Amino acid sequence: MSRADHSDRARSLARCAVLAAAAAVLVVLLSLLRTGPLIILQGLAGLAVCAVGAWWFLAHRGVVRVLGGALAVGAPAAVLALFLYGGLWFTAPAGVALWAGALACARGALRADRRPERPAAVRPGRPPRRPVLIMNPASGGGKVARFGLVERAEALGARVLLLTPGARTDVEELARKAVAEGADLLGVAGGDGTQALVAAVAAEHDLPFLVISAGTRNHLAMDLGLDRSDPSRCLDALTDGVELRVDLGDVAGRAFVNTVSFGVYAAIVQRPEYRDAKAGTALDALPDLLAGGAGERLDALADGLPVTGQQALLVSNNPYSAADPLEVGRRPRLDGGELGVLGIRVDGAAQAADLAVRGALSPALTVLTSRRVEVRAGEGDDSDSAAGTAAASIPVAVDGEALTLPTPVVCTLRPRALRVLVPRNRPGAMDQVPELNWRRIATLALDRPGPGARA
After folding, report:
1. How far is residue 88's CA from residue 394's CA, in Å, rounded to a whole number?
2. Cα–Cα distances in angstroms (integers) from residue 171 to residues 61, 193, 198, 372, in the given order
3. Can you give the pTM of this predicted structure?
4. Angle made by CA atoms 105, 107, 112, in degrees to the nearest 5
5. Quick check: helix, strand or coil at residue 325?
6. pLDDT in tens, 314-354
7. What is the rounded CA–CA span in Å between residue 402 and residue 395?
């Protein structure tokens, strides 16, 4: 499809988005004429009650948790019943459908209008002669065996090193030994924590790195555009690949490819029962973590800017999409040279409701970018009192792996330090969801093709 065709498609989708959004607003206004603004206020109140219920459910136990769960489920149902009783049985679903259509068209327009990546970001990759791939048979529920990754890799000339399930293996040392024996590519079929350890060795020796999406969540593979449904397709890079230069994160001297988590999530990951029962462990731990007790507050400096009293802090290797900071999905790029910082501070049910209603505009949420982030235990933590803040240790989750590190914990970025070999055809490469920008949508909708657009 030519650039002119892309422009026409973007323009048409933008106009559809604007029309659908205007129709959704019109539906709401017509509803207000019939029922008055009170019903809208009641809907917002229902949303706030739902948020309060969710907070009680997470931050308390016993009767309060049961009551919170009932409110979180019952409030939306009550709002729906209220809308139906108020005569909005047609206009409410119509408004929601129109707004959903507007969002879909807007994102489609932004995708069609997206400019190509910088030419320097991708270059032809040379097929490796002595690739070494480290595979974890237990990762992702047994994807290594299920997709025949060992057989396929060996057929393509790779040497495969299988980790022993249940045994503690120094993966970093295994990678260093492979390099000493002449490996000219390192790759991993496993979780993102293992990916990070081997990626650090590959970056140190300036070797290409191969990501095989055999983990559970495969965040790095997703952001690279790799096929997460069939990890064997990642091996196509060995014969027909291109090379990307991406950033590599560093936390206290340890590499990370995705995120470093502090606070609530990091404290939960530390629990030994977490691996076998993630949801149950989180529900059991959250009341202590949110309402006081273990894992209090965190203070941070992001390029010198203070971020204080946070309950949870997420530092990412390049920022996640800012379209919805509460729904950390994927990173638009991995070579931007900046860390993403997301902090959450909720002091009670009222702030939880404010966060639910206002989203990114709520003061409970901090979203920014930085080149250097320094994290330490908050001034009110008991961990400071015995030996001072500088000697305190805090729980940290590095790409999902539980660690305890002395403060201050410093996160930085090594720009474009990692060479990643990926297949030439990546199904997810063009599936990135652009940040929703209604000003850009309006500009596209009003744009007219030039006289020579089809020439």
Report:
1. 51
2. 40, 10, 7, 27
3. 0.72
4. 90
5. coil
6. 899 999 875 444 445 678 889 999 999 988 887 766 666 66
7. 7
